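Mods, move this if it's the wrong board.
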Amino acid sequence: MRAGGRRAAIAWCLYDWANSAFPTVVSTFVIAAYFTRAVAESPEKGQSQWAWAMALAGLAVAVLAPVLGGLADRVGPRKPWLAGFTLLAAAASAGLWVVRPDAASVLPALVLVAVGSIGFEMALVFYNAMLPEVAATDRMGRLSGWAWGLGYAGGLTCLLIALFGLVRGEPPPFGLDPAAAESVRATGFLVAAWMLAFAVPLFLWVPDRGRVAPEAVPGWRRILRLLRQRPDVTRFLVARLLYTDGLNTLFAFGGIYAAGTFDMTVQTVMAFGIAMNVAAGLGAAAFAWVDDWLGSRRTVTLGLMGMMTFGAILLVISGKVWFWVFALPLGIFFGPVQAASRTLLARLAPPESRAELYGLYALSGKITAFAGPAVLGWVTAWTASQRAGMATILLFLGGGLWVLWRTPLTEKHG
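Not the wrong board. Structure tokens:
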């Protein structure tokens, strides 16, 4: 372990538990569904408006993350940046209380969710860059994987509390009025409190870099020069761009595929989503040992190969039972790909440019996020087949795997 010892490592992992409440409760399950069904004029228009808000937030992150990450590298401490963006995400979540179930709340809802998403994503830039501060090189895979698994568990725990403690509470707690959707709107307060409470240990116990003499303010010219100097990192980021497009598309359309092709009900699809998150969390924690043993690139490779194998099987089988049999093992490989990707960059990045490169890492996950859904939608429309459309995900996963495997990397691990 590095400075701070085991206590610092646990506190760092706990931040994953803290921040996962936002994407799970706000971006995916509760607030997103509430907006499309009760706030927007229609579910179709609500889905479109939500997508545009997320796209604009993603664009903001893609532009800001490398520059602000570089600025943090030049100045020194990362905790102030992490604290600021964590507070931004929490404040936006709490602000969702003003989003009433009528069309007049559409704009406030979209602004708050977009601002919260920016805070969430930008906080990850500085959080990820702190990994080498709390774990030695031969233990970074374990810590990253355990934290990722803890993140899945934290998000699901907060979701269950939101659903059964607030949304479906009988009688409604705290005198909340279900007719005014107060039980749903109050989940924003829950997310804010959850993020702030469980983030505190990181700020108390995780060491941070000292202040350094500021250099020239970083910009895109310096970032491009850095990429030219480190072609290995550049090619890894390209590989991640491709397979992350595949992962994100699979997250977005897996439930739609299950409902349409296998005739699953909404309740079954939600149960499937929860089961997949559990599988991904367990996979991230279990493969954490593999990351330190075989190395991060091999772990990502194994994860992508596993996803492609089970994904191909799911394209040809029929029957709900077989869908569950092969879909859950596929979920096991989600977490390892994500956690080991984070570790791989930590092992490649020079100490003086970690936050800057994690900014580019955030960019690589956002800048072409439209590509996977666009290709899937076009192929589905052209072939009139959900199976054919979902097959395009394998192309993104395979493309990322091919670029990653052909990239010469000097990776330090146990």
